[in-house]
């Protein structure tokens, strides 16, 4: 999928670990920041570092709002496709742990 022109600031990914088993990336989102459209190649776990409100833009034009609570993790399947946008009033961060043994 080709990405449309960005009107939002990009979220900042910082890869902390990348080995044969997993990839750990910290994502830092300014207010209004986005990841850009992407598809996850592996099953993954998200661990919020700070509270925040994010909107997931979904294929087909749908959206879903997610409230991040520090330390309350969630998982998603490989193949998940979306754009993550900080639609809250404050910056937020989370750590994403991709499990390479579970490809999609």
From TrEMBL:
Residue ranges occupied by any Cupin type-2 domain in the UniProt entry: 26-97
Transmembrane segments: none
InterPro entries: Cupin_2, RmlC-like_jellyroll, RmlC_Cupin_sf
Protein name as annotated: Cupin
Source species of the chain: Teichococcus rhizosphaerae
């Amino acid at each position: 999928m080709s990405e449309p022109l960005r009107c939002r600031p990009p979220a900042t990914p910082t890869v902390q670990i990348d080995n044969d088993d997993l990839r750990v990336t910290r994502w830092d989102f300014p207010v209004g920041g986005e990841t850009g459209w992407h598809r996850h190649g592996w099953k993954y776990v998200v661990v919020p570092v700070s509270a925040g409100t994010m909107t997931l833009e979904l294929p087909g034009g749908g959206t879903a709002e997610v409230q991040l609570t520090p330390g309350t993790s969630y998982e998603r399947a490989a193949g998940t496709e979306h754009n993550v946008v900080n639609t809250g009033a404050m910056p937020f961060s989370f750590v994403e742990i991709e499990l390479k043994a579970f490809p999609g």
